[in-house]
Every structure is written in structure tokens, then in C-alpha cells.
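Could you show me some protein's one-letter sequence and the numbers that encode its backbone in two labelled lines?

___
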Amino acid sequence: MTNILQIIASPRGTDSQSTQVANTYIEARTRIDPQIKVDVLDLWRTPLPEFDGDKAAAKMTFFGVGEMDEQRLSAWDQVVAICERFSQADEYVISVPMWNGGVPYKLKHYIDLITQPGLLFGFDPAHGYFGLLENKTATVVYTSGVFAPGAPAKYGSDFQSSYLAWWLETIGITDVKPIRYQPSLLTEDPAAQQQAAISQAKQTAEQFTAAAH
């Protein structure tokens, strides 16, 4: 059985274009393979603890700074519990609208909570960072309202997909399929581009399902 973790980074509910495209992908996947289990993590409806001083201090003990006392261990246990929900998935479907050239702060908060040494990544001075996740796949839906690949710089810069691609590789996920719906003010037919994104979502679902079998 394949376990999919769907991560929703938009607060717009059913009006969200990124969530609509991601839902299309998941509907296609589950229609082809009804055994797939989907865990939906809506970051705007899921309380997340602050990554405060105790959690930061606990993290630094893995780099030889300070000791893991009872207070820090209690804080770290919160992080571990949240991270386990993420690491137990086989596949990730992440819907990401562009905010100010980057990702929504709720998604950044979540990433900062779970991206921890010994949980999602390792580090050694000779080789640097290395991911701890193995045999995972991800489909990432990128949407934006003004920026589009190839558009003039006045329409914005992409710290959205570049950041997500770096993060996924850092934690060990290299099999990543991006789906974009990013019409700029120059796009003559946004509706056609939206339909193309939906078609791509369906095709990607079919490819992933075929590869899994």
C-alpha cells in the first residue's frame, strides 16, 4: 500500500488553484489504485508549535553544542512526533502558491520544524549535508498570479521552486515531478494553461502509478 501525504500550503480552500491541481493528481492516482492511502495535512488548519529556544537548543546538541536535558528533550519530542507523520509517507503531494517570490510562511514554518539532524538529514564536515529519506517521491504543484518562467524580471523572481527543489534534495527526495500553473500578465489564455496543468497532473499520476507497478 502506498501512503501519500498531501501538504496544502494555500489558505484559500476550494478557491486555491494549487490545491485544485493537486486534488486532480490525487483523484487520478486513487482512481487507478484504490489501495492508496491519503493523509491530508492542511497547514492552515493544523496547529504547529513554535520552533522556540528550547527546540533550537535541542537541535544544536546534535552539533555538539550543549546537552540534551529534560526540558530540551521534551521540546524535541514534539518535533519528532511531527516529523514522523512526514517521514512515514511514501509519496508527497505539495501544493505551493507563490508568496512574494517564495513560499507561504506556514509551509516555511513546517519545513523549519521537521528539517532536523538525525531525522531528515545528516551532516559531516567532509561531505556536508546528506538526506536520510530513501525511496520517496514527490509531486509539487507551483502556482503564481504574476510570475511565470521566462517572463521579464519586472514580473518577479522564483525563490519558490528553487527553494523547494533544494529542500527536497537536502532531505533525500530526488524523484520529484513539478507541475506548474503560472500565468503572467502576458499570458493570452490563462484558462488554456490551467487546463494544461490539470492534464499534466493526470498524466503524472498515470506515470507514477505505472512505475509503482
